[in-house]
Specification:
The chain is mainly alpha-helical and about 200 residues long. It has 7 helices and no strands. Helix 3 runs antiparallel to helix 7, helix 5 runs antiparallel to helix 6 and helix 5 runs antiparallel to helix 7. The longest helix is centred in the N-terminal third of the chain and has 32 residues. It comes from Aptenodytes patagonicus (King penguin).
């Protein structure tokens, strides 16, 4: 079934939020009478804010525990670790396609869900918060997939087996820096997805 143009525009607004409004000059609410989608949007923006807050708490723990607080001081070590930012360029492409953007968000949430296991090993005293963050990432991914199905968009289904292998760290310092960058990258990913 074809997706109404207003629904695709609203979906784009979900991802680009204020910048998109400025370009098109129309408030999101006027574009859609679909209250279910408005509710989805509101709940999941709040949910994303909550996840960002939990990531920020863990970033402070890494800063306080390991004195790893400033990214620019760790860039050389980062190159050795091979930890990269999960891309979201499909969400800002001139040829925006909701399926491609949501596929990247799904892929990113799945990747961060898996890589948070390295943070779990690093911060055993904060197991509950890291596990909550993993669960929230999985739930947000599930919410997005359900909304895609509701809109009649193609969905991305991942295998149910566990995440891929964790990065291997040659020293405890590299593990600490790896945890720092996993959290920093996840925070940037969430901020981009939220916008």
């Amino acid at each position: 079934a074809a997706v109404p143009a207003g629904m695709l525009a609203l979906l784009l607004g979900t991802l680009l939020w204020a910048p998109w409004q400025a370009l098109h000059g129309a408030p999101l609410v006027e574009l859609s009478g679909d209250q279910d989608f408005q509710l989805f949007l509101h709940k999941n923006l709040e949910f994303t804010r909550k996840i960002k807050g939990d990531v920020a708490v863990l970033q402070r723990v890494v800063c306080d525990t390991f004195q790893l607080c400033k990214e620019e001081e760790l860039l050389l070590v980062r190159q050795d670790l091979g930890i990269v930012q999960v891309p979201l360029e499909q969400c800002h492409s001139r040829n925006f396609q909701a399926e491609a953007c949501f596929s990247q968000i799904h892929d990113g949430l799945r990747a961060y869900h898996g890589s948070l296991a390295a943070v779990l090993e690093l911060l055993p005293g904060h197991t509950s918060l890291v596990e909550t963050l993993q669960l929230d990432a999985a739930n947000l991914s599930s919410n997005i997939q359900q909304q895609m199905e509701d809109l009649g968009l193609a969905t991305v289904t991942y295998p149910t087996e566990g995440p891929g292998p964790l990065p291997t760290f040659s020293s405890s310092f590299h593990h600490q820096v790896g945890g720092f960058f996993i959290l920093a990258n996840f925070q940037r990913f969430l901020e981009t997805a939220y916008r």
